[in-house]
């Protein structure tokens, strides 16, 4: 069995990066679940635990045999940002090709390291009208400590009229906080 005795300390480190009440609420709810040795399982999550967050939440299942992450749930605000439902689609099906290596990096870190992953600042950079906000990804693990998926929230505060203005006004910080208690890894762009 894989154990992560420092996972709740890692959650406290991650909390220092977050600004939105929604992301902090999800992080706190996630931290309250699980055991002393591992983060929560998917079955530990109950929608009634955070009803106000549901429009901005998404849930992905990790398919160990393929290494793919597949969307299983999307909130109405997430759904409204895309021209189709994400449910049943993989990360590769939904992210623009130019952004895929960058996005795959922090999604996979959440599962493989495992870690708490965050993107703060510029979001949806590859879109014609990027946004500003924060994204939080939290790993879900089975009873043995193996990755089974993740829960995430994307809080979108502002839309820029174009990419050039978004790049001028908003930086993007990607932060990965390993659950083993080691120091966070930050990348600014």
Strand segment tally = 7
Number of domains: 1
CATH architecture: 2-Layer Sandwich
CATH class bucket: Alpha Beta
| Rg over alpha carbons | 16 Å
What fraction of the residues are assigned to beta strands by DSSP? 25-35%
CATH topology: Beta-Lactamase
Number of helices: 6
Outline the low-pLDDT stretches: none
- Tell me, what's the shape? globular
State the end-to-end CA separation: 37 Å
Look at the structure and give the mean pLDDT: 89
N-to-C order of helices and strands = HHEEHHHEEEHEE
User: In the CATH hierarchy, what is the superfamily?
Assistant: PAS domain
Describe this structure in words.
The mean pLDDT is 89. The protein starts with 6 loop residues before the first helix and ends with a strand. It has a single domain, classed as PAS domain (Beta-Lactamase, 2-Layer Sandwich), CATH 3.30.450. Helix content is 26%, strand content 31%. With 189 residues, it is an alpha+beta fold. It has helices at 7-15, 21-32, 76-80, 91-94, 100-112, 163-169; strands spanning 57-63, 68-74, 115-123, 131-141, 147-159, 172-178, 185-188. A 7-stranded antiparallel beta sheet has the order 2-1-5-4-3-6-7.
Comma- or semicolon-separated keywords:
6 helices; seven-stranded antiparallel beta sheet; 189 residues; alpha+beta; single chain; 26% helix
Summarize the structure.
By secondary structure, this protein is an alpha+beta fold. It is 26% helix and 31% strand.
Can you lay out the helices and strands and say which pair or pack?
Layout: H1 7-15, H2 21-32, E1 57-63, E2 68-74, H3 76-80, H4 91-94, H5 100-112, E3 115-123, E4 131-141, E5 147-159, H6 163-169, E6 172-178, E7 185-188
Antiparallel strand pairs: 1-2, 1-5, 3-4, 3-6, 4-5, 6-7
Helix pairs in contact: 1-2
